[in-house]
Amino acid sequence: MCFSLGTRPVPDATGLELTAQELREADPGSILATDYHRDRATLIADPAHVQPVLEHLHAKGYTFLASLHGCDYYPEEPRLGVLYELLDMYNVDRITVKARLYSGTPRIASVVGLFPGADFPEREVYDMFGVVFDGHPDLRRILMPEDYQGFPQRRDFPTGGEPVLFTYNEENSYGKWQ
User: Fold this and answer.
1) CA within 13 Å, CB half, 161
2) What is the mean pLDDT of the segment spanning 93-105?
3) DSSP code, position 165
4) How far apart are CA 147 and CA 156, in angstroms?
5) CA-based nearest residue to 23, from 62, 47, 55, 48
6) pTM for the complete prediction?
7) What are the distances in angstroms from CA 19 to CA 29, 79, 120, 124, 137?
């Protein structure tokens, strides 16, 4: 455990580096970097090694997946991010694992086998960002219609839509209502 009374329950910077080193020794190339910012401990993992990293952290006591979500770092590449927020409920410790994916073919291994609660969050990330989770038992759209084109949470997704009909623009939009 890396905290004392009066501090936040996350690994401190030293604890984060020790955890990263332990993961690098267990699986070389798995951890690309660490980030300790505003009392948040983040491991930046290679997407090809995310599942072994999460399995190792699960064995260390981080058994609760508090959140799995996606984000878009447009215009940077790798552009898409998948973040796993893990919690050690015994030691009241939390850590984030982040994997960055290229937007051309965003694929990452599913963790539903390790964290069954990841089922619907993975489907949501697939639906909103287009990240394919290999090995997911039922990967299909969850919020948008099955025939919907595009991924609405990506930053390059066109905003706008159908014009709203008001009395001042009804003749220009759809024609005068009868």
Assistant:
1) 3
2) 94
3) P
4) 20
5) 55
6) 0.83
7) 14, 26, 28, 29, 31
